[in-house]
Amino acid sequence: MENSSRRKFLRNSALAAAVPAAVMPEAAPKELFVHHVYFYLKNPGSEADKAKLLEGLHKLKKVPTIRFVHIGSPATTNRSVIEKGYAVSWLCFFDNLEEEEVYQKHPIHLKFVEEYSHLWEKVIVYDSVGPKI
């Protein structure tokens, strides 16, 4: 590597490392709360029931404290450690536990449970917290 290229690389790396500290507000969330739900339908082969549940989840993603949502179905991967018995997964991220608690009590969430819970036989929830990276 040429000396000038190396110096340029080092200077740019130092600038890139300093920028996040300079532009990140102090109030930026330091924690991330992850809420992952797996829905097992009463009628697992029913595309109509799955479509209805997806309809409800698309309404649910409007809760304002949710930062990111992913709605998914089992992938076609095939390894012994993979659970594929669920119909739909609901993965959402919050800035912290308090924001997730607001979601749990939010009228949109309560209405979702009321209107769509008849579709599922079982729900498994994995909640986790950790530093925001």
**How are the strands ordered across the major sheet?**
2-3-1-4
CATH topology: Alpha-Beta Plaits
Q: Mean of residue pLDDT?
A: 86
CATH architecture: 2-Layer Sandwich
**Which of globular, elongated, flat, extended, rod-shaped describes the shape?**
globular
Query: Which CATH class is shown?
Result: Alpha Beta
Topology as a string of helices (H) and strands (E): HEHEEHHE
What is the number of domains?
A: 1
Reported for the largest beta sheet, the result is: 4 strands, antiparallel
Structural class, from helix and strand content?
alpha+beta
Q: How many E strands?
A: 4
Mind telling me the C-alpha Rg? 21 Å
Q: How much strand content do the residues show? A: 25-35%
Q: What oligomeric assembly is this protein in?
A: single chain
How widely separated are the two ends? 31 Å
Q: What percent of the residues sit in helical stretches (DSSP H or I)? A: 40-55%
Unreliable spans: 14-25
DSSP helical segment count:
4
